[in-house]
Structures are given as structure tokens and as C-alpha cells.
Design goal:
By secondary structure, the chain is an alpha+beta fold. It is built from three helices and four strands. 33% of the residues lie in helices and 33% in strands. InterPro entries: PepSY.
């Protein structure tokens, strides 16, 4: 799936608006983490996620859990199923995949 400008903008907006329950990450903190190489840019994570599960991005969050950062990404596939992917925010390594009923 090709990442288009509107899709990327939507993903970045979702990231900016999403904050995990156990940590108050604001957009300045997310920017600092990215600039210091502690997390990958959202564009790279979306490329990995859509290679794993092609479809339409419907939600993206950055979470701080277990001493690290992870992106939780929800993708709607062509059959209407929602895939929830968790990717390590530093490496884009897949950590978890779940299909919502």
C-alpha cells in the first residue's frame, strides 16, 4: 500500500492526539524522542505495518510500556476486518498481532 499525504497526515494527527494511559506524552516529547533516535518516524512504522497487513489506517498510538515505546496501529483490511498491530517504536519489529472480530 502506498502511503499518501492525507493518510500520513491522518496518522500523524492520530499520533499527536493519542496519549497512553500510563504516561503523558505530548507532541513535544514525541518530537524529542524522534529527534534523539529513540523512536522511528511514523512514516517508517506505517510502511512496516502496511507491508505486514495491507489496508487502510484507522488508528495509531504511541505507548510507553514495559520500559520502552511501541506503536499500536489499527488497519482495516479489504475484507472489513480490523488488525491491531503492535510494533516496537525503535526497530519496527512486530510485537503483537490481533484481529478484532
Amino acid at each position: 500500500m502506498k502511503i499518501t499525504a492525507p493518510l500520513l497526515a491522518f496518522g500523524l494527527l492520530m499520533l499527536a492526539l493519542s496519549a497512553p494511559a500510563d504516561d503523558d506524552l505530548d507532541h513535544d516529547e514525541v518530537r524529542r524522542l524522534r529527534e534523539h533516535g529513540q523512536i522511528l518516524p511514523m512514516e517508517q512504522l506505517l510502511e512496516h505495518a502496511t507491508r505486514l497487513r495491507p489496508g487502510q489506517l484507522i488508528e495509531a498510538e504511541l505507548e510507553h510500556r514495559h520500559g520502552g515505546y511501541r506503536y499500536e496501529i489499527k488497519i482495516l483490511d479489504a475484507t472489513g476486518r480490523i488488525h491491531e498491530l503492535e510494533l516496537d517504536a525503535t526497530t519496527a519489529h512486530p510485537l503483537h498481532h490481533e484481529v478484532e472480530p
